[in-house]
Amino acid sequence: DVKVTQSSRYLVKRTGEKVFLECVQDMDHENMFWYRQDPGLGLRLIYFSYDVKMKEKGDIPEGYSVSREKKERFSLILESASTNQTSMYLCASSQGPNTQYFGPGTRLTVL
Amino acid sequence: DAKTTQPTSMDCAEGRAANLPCNHSTISGNEYVYWYRQIHSQGPQYIIHGLKNNETNEMASLIITEDRKSSTLILPHATLRDTAVYYCIVRATLKTSYDKVIFGPGTSLSVIP
């Protein structure tokens, strides 16, 4: 079974803090994705990566950066957290154009 | 990707089959039908996908009509743990390999004891 894990289920941070969200997949997938999910707005793609050290902006990259130093690990960084970044963050991975498998999600609250 | 239409909500008695419909009348020939579900406060879980033929796995069955304009996800013996929002999406897996997933509102399934 594909396993995608995320470093935290729940996280509370203060405005201005630097926040790191980590995602690890164990299936040697090429592609990894970071989404955020908000009520009424559905899933929105922040960044994705199709190879180690490669990254592409999604639909809402502002305020975020990413890092992929190893194939199995994709990190999302909030450089200076703001209250409008309070959300559910979802990581996913896929092999080529096929099924995306999601992690359990991190519910981030920025106070 | 083609749009899908699903009922907003459904109830199902525990132990009975849950049949969740999805309309995708503008589906293209190279688009697959995917189903995911999301239990409250958890990440989306992949269930099943298919192109033309009916598919079955350990979680569910997928019935696709011959004209491919609609499909039904069947949970054969629903349990309380199947209470979730179920998303039907259509995706062309021949597109660029980093195509994002887009969920619609989905169907909120409540399994009743």
Describe the structure.
The complex is a heterodimer of chains A (111) and B (113). By secondary structure, chain A is mainly β. Helices cover 0% and strands 54% of the residues of chain A. Chain A has strands at residues 4-6, 10-13, 19-25, 31-38, 42-49, 56-57, 64-70, 73-78, 87-94, 101-102, 106-110. In chain A, strands 2, 4, 5, 6, 9, 10 and 11 form a seven-stranded mixed beta sheet that branches. Chain A has a four-stranded antiparallel beta sheet with strand order 1-3-8-7, with no helix packed on it. The termini of chain A are far apart. The model of chain A has no long low-confidence stretch (mean pLDDT 94). By secondary structure, chain B is mostly beta strands. The model of chain B has no long low-confidence stretch (mean pLDDT 91). The interface between A and B is medium-sized, with 29 and 22 residues.
Number of helices of chain B: 0
Element order of chain B: H for helix, E for strand? EEEEEEEEE
Poorly predicted ranges of chain B:
none
**Helix/sheet category of chain B:** mainly beta
- As a percent range, the share of helical residues of chain B equals under 10%
Describe this protein with a few key phrases.
heterodimer; A: 111 residues; mainly beta; four-stranded antiparallel sheet; 0% helix; B: mainly beta; five-stranded mixed sheet
In short:
The complex is a heterodimer of chains A (111) and B (113). Chain A is mainly β and 111 residues long. Chain A contains no helices and 11 strands.
Helices, strands, pairings?
The complex is a heterodimer of chains A (111) and B (113).
Chain A (H helix, E strand, L loop, with lengths): L3 E3 L3 E4 L5 E7 L5 E8 L3 E8 L6 E2 L6 E7 L2 E6 L8 E8 L6 E2 L3 E5 L1
Parallel strand pairs in A: 2-11
Antiparallel strand pairs in A: 1-3, 3-8, 4-5, 4-9, 5-6, 7-8, 9-10, 9-11
Chain B lengths: L8 E5 L4 E6 L7 E8 L6 E6 L4 E2 L4 E4 L5 E6 L8 E9 L14 E6 L1
